[in-house]
Write a structure and sequence with these properties.
This protein is α+β, with helices and mostly antiparallel strands. It is built from seven helices and 19 strands.
Length: 330
């Protein structure tokens, strides 16, 4: 459930308070915060947020996406010249969408891109080939790999950070609900190469009336406007949505152009859209339409807003998904 949580600024001491408890000031240094709790800690401001890494991305490790949106490709040779803005650190998704303005160029992504992963997403590193890494996106279910949805991306779009992984486990979380937001007041890191968009999920380390402070995958912290996020305590999920709730969330993206493999406010494909909308409400759908279609079926005469509609070829192979949005549906 969504809640307002008071969180200590002294992460090195491991203090997290439940809803309604007095919050330590986010302006305190780590040492001062520890003193106020009666615990001695020899740390300096920002030390508890420094990235923990051996400086390498290697097969078998867990890593995190460190760009606004990372595109996963079928192989390192798949990207075209027009796709270069999506291969950088930071990525330039506005420029990439400009390059993809012609319909035939945009359609050319079909069969080249696999999926995408937003800032902070956890991935398992499956293989390394030069400056590229094959990874599996942990929270995208697929029969292609039990570890998550697989694909290739430039290694420079990933970070290894054991501390961030620990914060993801132990801290409340702030989940972006607006199509796009901004990181402000970035501290204790030089890594500022990302913005935050819909469904980005980051560890919460402080909260005030107007903002939440979140830990970043590359180390350090930043603020996000509280009106742009929902906050959840450890282990909590959103309340079960109605069909109308799902439709309302989906309509934020009305008019956004289709993007093969897309799962973000910069472009969705069909199953990436339904996967992302349901994920925002705590429902874990598989990434692709063929697997989504294996959910419980309902009669076409009893469709309700939020129900998914699937389309197949004459062979019965599902190739497209959409959702019922009609307010007149029963």
């Amino acid at each position: 459930m969504r809640t307002k949580i008071a969180v200590s600024a002294a992460l090195g001491v491991g203090l997290v308070f439940g809803a309604g408890a007095p919050a330590l000031s986010s302006n305190l240094s780590s040492t001062d915060a520890a003193k106020t709790s009666g615990i001695s800690a020899d740390v300096v401001p920002g030390q508890e947020l420094e990235r923990i890494t051996d400086g390498k991305i290697e097969k078998g490790e867990t890593a995190y996406v460190d760009v606004t949106v990372a595109t996963l490709w079928t192989d390192p040779k798949a990207p075209r010249k027009v796709d270069k803005p999506a291969l950088q650190h930071p990525v330039d998704l506005e420029k990439w969408n400009e390059n993809l303005e012609p319909t035939d160029v945009r359609r050319g992504l079909t069969g080249k891109a696999e999926t995408q992963a937003t800032y902070g997403s956890e991935v398992s590193v499956l293989d390394i080939k030069g400056s590229w890494a094959k990874v599996a996106v942990t929270d995208q279910k697929t029969p292609k790999d039990e570890k998550g949805y697989p694909g290739w991306l430039p290694k420079k779009q990933l970070v290894e950070n054991d501390r961030f992984g620990k914060l993801r486990e132990d801290q409340p979380r702030a989940v972006v609900t607006k199509p796009k937001s901004e990181l402000e007041g970035i501290e204790f890191t030089k890594d500022t190469g990302a913005d935050v968009s819909f469904n980005v999920d980051l560890p919460l380390i402080a909260q005030d009336v107007d903002d939440v402070r979140v830990a970043l995958p590359g180390g350090g912290a930043a603020w996000i406007g509280i009106e742009d996020v929902d906050v959840y305590d450890v282990g909590d999920k959103p309340e079960k949505p109605s069909g109308k709730d799902l439709v309302k969330t989906a309509k934020q993206f009305e008019g956004l152009r289709y993007l093969w493999a897309g799962v973000s406010a910069y472009g969705f494909d069909c199953s990436g859209f339904t996967y992302s909308i349901f994920k925002a409400h705590g429902i874990d759908l598989p990434r692709d339409s063929g697997e989504q279609a294996k959910a419980k079926a309902v009669s076409s005469s009893n469709l309700k807003p939020g129900d998914l509609l699937f389309f197949s070829t004459s062979s019965g192979t599902v190739h497209h998904v959409s959702a019922c949005t009609s307010a007149t549906a029963r």
